[in-house]
Amino acid sequence: MTAQTRLWLTLAALNGLIAVAAGAFGAHGVSDLKAKDWLRTGAEYQLVHALAVFACFTVWRAGASAAGAAAWLFLIGAAMFSGSLYLMALTSQRWMVLATPVGGLFLLAGWATLAWAILAGGRNASSL
């Protein structure tokens, strides 16, 4: 396994860990309803995109090298989207709301890139 692959998979696993922790904290450690909602939304999106990074690895291994770019877009997008929601829920910093839609654009770009990677194939396209 390459260093880049180990990095993607480790970051995907850590994203899953953070998502579960944020969701649990939102469910049990916060009383403010808006904060609960932000933590729930952030956790849902982060967990889905942690799994998407694992899917990128599978597609990349099948020969679609552009899936690597999709993995990075998912990781950056989840950090921006979910991270901004977590910070708003846990602090009084509301300026972070500006990062949320930018993170969402990264997530959308990740899905478009993954779709393109699958359609374009690669070195071993018949196995996709």
What does this protein structure show overall?
This protein is mainly alpha-helical. 79% of the residues lie in helices and 0% in strands. The chain has helices at residues 3-28, 33-61, 67-90, 99-120. α2 runs parallel beside α4 (99-120) and α3 runs antiparallel to α4. The longest helix is centred in the middle third of the chain and has 29 residues, at 33-61. The chain starts with a helix and ends in an 8-residue tail after the last helix.
Counted up, domains total 1
Helix content: over 70%
CATH architecture: Up-down Bundle
Rough shape? elongated
Question: What fold name stands as the CATH topology?
Answer: Four Helix Bundle (Hemerythrin (Met), subunit A)
Strand % is under 5%
Radius of gyration: 16 Å
Low-confidence stretches: none
Distance between the termini: 20 Å
Task: Please report the total strand number as a whole number.
Answer: 0
Average pLDDT taken over every residue: 92
One letter per element, helices H and strands E, the order comes to: HHHH
The helix tally amounts to 4
Largest sheet: none
Quickly name the level 1 CATH class: Mainly Alpha
Structural class by secondary-structure content: mainly alpha
Give me a quick take on this structure.
By secondary structure, the protein is mainly α.
